[in-house]
Specification:
This protein is an alpha+beta fold and 157 residues long. Helix content is 19%, strand content 49%. The chain has one domain. It is globular, with a radius of gyration of 16 Å. The protein starts with 5 loop residues before the first helix and ends with a strand.
């Protein structure tokens, strides 16, 4: 990461996230059986988001700089109340909410966004170098979806 600043890395991560899942980017060839893979490339950077599942899902995002992994985030999400929200509805709320957050040039530090009778929340501790967080959706007084995530810089010895 000698030639890479944290500001450059953060800006790339936001652009990559906005262009892939949130931007409804095209899925790429699956690297692992059963995975859903999304990629984004920009000069010396590349980004891979690879996840399994749908209603309940597990995944990992990795950023490469000049071909070497420099940052990663792992996540697990699930629908808590399938009688109150479908995976498709949750996905639409997440995509719209994150799109608004990304226009602020960030993906950490908390966010709240209401859409109809649903509210999306995101909270995190730490910064780009090491963080943990949670996103969730409420409908009325019920938490209907949640996702836990953590990640940070990847360093070779």
């Amino acid at each position: 990461m000698k030639d890479l600043s944290l500001e450059q890395l953060n800006a790339f991560i936001v652009r990559a996230k906005a262009a892939t899942y949130v931007g409804r980017g095209a899925k790429s060839l699956s690297y692992r059986p059963g995975s859903h893979d999304l990629q984004y490339h920009e000069e010396a950077f590349s980004y891979l988001d690879s996840y399994f599942g749908g209603t309940d899902f597990l995944g990992q995002e990795v950023v490469y700089f000049e071909g070497k992994p420099v940052w990663s985030m792992s996540y697990y999400g699930r629908i808590l109340e399938p009688s109150l929200i479908s995976a498709a509805e949750a996905g639409q709320i997440i995509q719209e909410s994150l799109s608004r957050m990304y226009t602020q040039g960030r993906f950490l530090e908390g966010f709240e966004h209401s859409i109809g009778d649903s509210t999306y929340f995101d909270t995190s501790d730490g910064d780009l170098t090491f963080f943990t967080g949670k996103e969730w959706i409420t409908r009325g007084n019920a938490m209907v979806y949640e996702l836990l995530y953590h990640g940070g810089l990847v360093k070779e010895p």
